[in-house]
Amino acid sequence: MLSKRQEISNCAARLFRKKGYKATSMRDIAEAMNMKAASLYNHISSKEELFSELLLKMATLFTIGMEEIAQSSLSTADKLERLIALHVKLTVEHTDAISLISGEWVHLPESSAAEYLKHRDSYEKEFRTIIDQGKKEGIYKDIDTDIILFSLLSTLRGLYSWYSKNKDYNSIELERQMINCLTHGINK
Amino acid sequence: MLSKRQEISNCAARLFRKKGYKATSMRDIAEAMNMKAASLYNHISSKEELFSELLLKMATLFTIGMEEIAQSSLSTADKLERLIALHVKLTVEHTDAISLISGEWVHLPESSAAEYLKHRDSYEKEFRTIIDQGKKEGIYKDIDTDIILFSLLSTLRGLYSWYSKNKDYNSIELERQMINCLTHGINK
DNA sequence: GTCTATAAGTCGATAGAC
DNA sequence: GTCTATCGACTTATAGAC
Fold it and tell me: Which residues pair with A140 in a beta bridge?
């Protein structure tokens, strides 16, 4: 049983994704919840807080997942596979909220934006370290690290869009296909 | 010498990209143009028109480029390379406007949205045909065509973001790296 | 905890002087 | 073609009855 607060959050994520944060009004969220806009404020304190919470939760999940992988004793190739699997898992479990990461984060209030970007930058930095390590070990092609990183992240961050139209796709098979599709592009 | 109308359009594209369409006010655009908001209406007829024009222009450029490639007698592999080159070229020449394609298009008014999606769907359909042809010829791996398509398009559509931070990167070299990075993922 | 009513501000767009 | 002034609609959020 979800708390009403959590129901509102899920509902908002769905609308933010569909219409964008700025174009989604508190009245829209209230209508989808069968309430009046004013009643929402008994459960949340502001629209910005609702939005920041969604994005910072996702950023934290990525940070935790990345730390586990980066600090493990897995091989470099296995680390990359686990990273792809992490994106697949979070996409399946938080499809709406994860969609906000690509573009909607610009609407974060200044206070949250700083914390969000800290998560994001450190995630990308650790991702880059893994790619560089693979190149050093000679298992990856000599393509500009930043181009590899941007290419992988673009695809992984856009996965929510593909997954939404293919929710019946077996999620283990999806993980396998993504790993296959993304890693063979850089393997020697 | 740009017409004032074109200056406003470029200015709006930059702001739409930075702050999002809904969060960019006519007053914001006017300020960046050193005018008052009311004066903008001597050159454009509405904010929606300004936005629709930007997105439909990009959609048309992609459609024209795709038609030339699809109807050519190039090999399948060369067609894909030309397609990647088309994205690189349009990204370099229209960095701000192209950024709106990924997420901001949802703010198109209903009238323009239909036309925009017609362009987009037909573009993706022809892209899919090229990938399928390559698989039939045995030059591409047996990965789900839709996954290949989504993976390529995610990266190509996100290129504006990478390019913005690397504007000094030689654009011929960028094209070569993108082709290398994207095609080796699916080549047998 | 939900409602009605409303405050206080911003939005796109127009009217009309110059 | 630019300006000031303003309209009417919409926004987030609050006050206070029930």
Answer: A187
> Global pTM?
0.97
Whether B112 sits with its Cβ under 7 A from any strand C atom: the answer reads no
CA of B40 to C1' of D4 (A): 15
Closest CA to A62 of A84, A46, A38, A42: A84
**Bridge partner residues of A60 (DSSP):** none
Would you call A10 exposed, middle or buried from its count of C-beta atoms within 10 A (0-12, 13-18, 19+)? middle
Which domains does chain A carry? 1-44 (1.10.10.60), 46-183 (1.10.357.10)
Q: What's the rounded mean pLDDT across residues A35-42?
A: 98
For chain A, the average pLDDT equals: 96
Question: Measuring CA to CA, which residue among B120, B102, B106 is closest to residue B158?
Answer: B102
- pLDDT digits over A40-77, tens only? 999 999 999 999 999 999 999 999 999 999 999 999 99
Provide the angle, in degrees to the nearest 10, between the axes of the packed helices A47-70 and A76-93. Answer: 150
Three-class SS state of A106: helix
Strand-pairing partners, residue A187, are: A140
Show the tokens assigned to B153. 């398009």
A1–chain B nearest CA distance, Å? 33
Put simply, whether B19 touches A (Cβ < 8 Å) is: yes
pLDDT in tens, B23-47: 999 999 999 999 999 999 999 999 9
